[in-house]
């Protein structure tokens, strides 16, 4: 690939109780950065892949902070617009016994005003690959038009389905139809098996059923939570189990997986190697409370990527139903993330 990977999408300022606990009783809120596409961009930069994040932020301190933090990770932010009339999006994490509820304040945000004209910008035209998600398609009519236009353009598109139920006013039926249509037009697609079942029904029981539903992409990656991931390259399929990881918080792991997979492909790696690097990068996100965590040392990464199949499988949980990993901070099980509009 000659040009950079270009990740397009909204990133918000995130306020997180510190220490972790219910928002209503929090004494301190830490400010972090939260965005699927910028998460992927930061991990791609960690892997040494030339990458650019393209978006819009408000002319406010949150916008300044987000841009600076993404840039500090080695991501090119020259394509980020500053909108003087619209704010930067904001979210609040509200951890509780039933799960982490995520409250969004993003209506009318700067990124929600993005549209197809963005594709004409030099920062996007130079891309060797565009990485987009279903989140962008749900933000506004102009954002959906941006995704549609990208899929019709000359640059290959990587698309992470990334279904966020609270963003779809028409509910599951609207999301299922739109996301299936978009995904089937992309060159490379990432989707979780549980996500596919929530969107398209319990009949989508395994990766093969997802492939039958999405025959369009040359490459399709189906992630089965902490168990395994299966990648299709045309008709050929390869499944690689996931190493066991002690989970602090699951948010951001899918974005990290996509970055690892794309980084391996960028270097000309095999499907097996791409799946392994996807799992290892996801593990970096799972081990921290923020969306972006440190990768293993380079020598450790190299050893794991070069391990024999038997050595790799020895890292995976024992066969059978996989229990939820314990929180590093307590003995409580990892609760699911919940999202409010």
From TrEMBL:
<dbReference type="InterPro" id="IPR052700">
    <property type="entry name" value="Carb_kinase_PfkB-like"/>
</dbReference>
<protein>
    <submittedName>
        <fullName>2-dehydro-3-deoxygluconokinase</fullName>
    </submittedName>
</protein>
<dbReference type="InterPro" id="IPR011611">
    <property type="entry name" value="PfkB_dom"/>
</dbReference>
<dbReference type="GO" id="GO:0016301">
    <property type="term" value="F:kinase activity"/>
</dbReference>
<feature type="domain" description="Carbohydrate kinase PfkB">
    <location>
        <begin position="5"/>
        <end position="288"/>
    </location>
</feature>
<keyword id="KW-0808">Transferase</keyword>
<feature type="region of interest" description="Disordered">
    <location>
        <begin position="315"/>
        <end position="341"/>
    </location>
</feature>
<dbReference type="InterPro" id="IPR029056">
    <property type="entry name" value="Ribokinase-like"/>
</dbReference>
<keyword id="KW-0418">Kinase</keyword>
<comment type="similarity">
    <text>Belongs to the carbohydrate kinase PfkB family.</text>
</comment>
<dbReference type="Pfam" id="PF00294">
    <property type="entry name" value="PfkB"/>
</dbReference>
């Amino acid at each position: 690939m000659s040009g950079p990977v270009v990740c397009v999408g909204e990133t918000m300022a995130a306020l997180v109780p510190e220490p972790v606990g219910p928002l209503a009783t929090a004494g301190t809120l830490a400010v972090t950065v939260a965005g699927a596409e910028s998460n992927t961009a930061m991990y791609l930069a960690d892997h040494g892949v030339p990458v650019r994040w393209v978006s819009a932020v408000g002319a406010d301190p949150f916008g300044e902070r987000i841009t600076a933090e993404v840039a500090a990770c080695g991501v090119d932010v020259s394509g980020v617009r500053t909108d003087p009339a619209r704010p930067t999006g904001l979210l609040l994490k509200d951890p509780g016994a039933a799960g982490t509820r995520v409250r969004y304040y993003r209506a009318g945000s700067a990124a929600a005003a993005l549209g197809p004209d963005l594709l004409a910008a030099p920062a996007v035209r130079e891309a060797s690959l565009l990485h987009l998600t279903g989140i962008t398609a749900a933000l506004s009519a102009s954002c959906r038009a941006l995704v549609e236009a990208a899929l019709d353009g000359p640059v290959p598109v990587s698309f992470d389905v990334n279904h966020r139920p609270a963003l779809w006013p028409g509910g599951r039926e609207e999301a299922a139809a739109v996301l299936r249509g978009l995904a089937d037009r992309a060159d490379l697609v990432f989707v979780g098996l549980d996500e596919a079942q929530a969107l398209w029904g319990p009949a989508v029981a395994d990766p093969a059923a997802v492939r039958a539903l999405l025959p369009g992409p040359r490459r399709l990656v189906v992630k089965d939570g902490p168990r395994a991931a299966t990648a299709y390259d045309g008709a050929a399929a390869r499944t690689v189990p996931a190493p066991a990881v002690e989970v602090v918080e699951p948010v951001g792991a899918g974005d990290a997986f996509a970055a690892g997979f794309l980084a391996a492909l960028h270097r000309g790696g095999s499907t097996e190697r791409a799946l392994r690097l996807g799992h290892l990068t996801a593990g970096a996100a799972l081990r921290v409370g923020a969306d972006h965590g440190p990768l293993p040392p380079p020598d450790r990464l190299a050893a794991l990527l070069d391990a024999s199949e038997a050595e790799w499988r020895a890292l995976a949980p024992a066969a059978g139903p996989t229990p939820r990993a314990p929180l590093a901070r307590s003995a409580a099980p990892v609760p699911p993330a919940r999202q409010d509009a």
